[in-house]
Write a structure and sequence with these properties.
With 85 residues, the chain is mainly alpha-helical. 51% of the residues lie in helices and 5% in strands. Strands 1-2 form a two-stranded antiparallel sheet. Helix 1 packs antiparallel against helix 2. The longest helix is centred in the middle third of the chain and has 18 residues.
């Protein structure tokens, strides 16, 4: 993490223009020496992590992950100038 990234992450901004200026400076510095993002996680690793998270949440609040019954949407008819839409 370079100094500009740290400045944006750790700073406190008292105004929106000040934050915008810091973001613009970060982008300028980043674009001088950009690095591509390389995705290293596999789909299986991501799905395993989701499963572990759901299992942990289930121990905290049992039944949270069960499908809930959805309420049926009410049918609404709109009449404009005597024509039913």
């Amino acid at each position: 993490m370079n100094l500009t990234q740290k400045a944006v992450r750790r700073a406190a901004f008292i105004s929106v223009p000040e934050l915008q200026a810091a973001i613009a400076e970060f982008l300028r510095a980043w674009n001088e020496n950009p690095k591509p993002f390389v995705w290293t996680a596999t789909v299986q690793k991501i799905m395993d992590k989701i499963s572990r998270g759901r299992a942990a949440l289930e121990t905290i609040q049992p039944g949270w992950s069960q499908k809930k019954k959805q309420k049926k949407a009410k049918k609404i008819s709109i009449v404009i100038c005597g024509t039913l839409y």
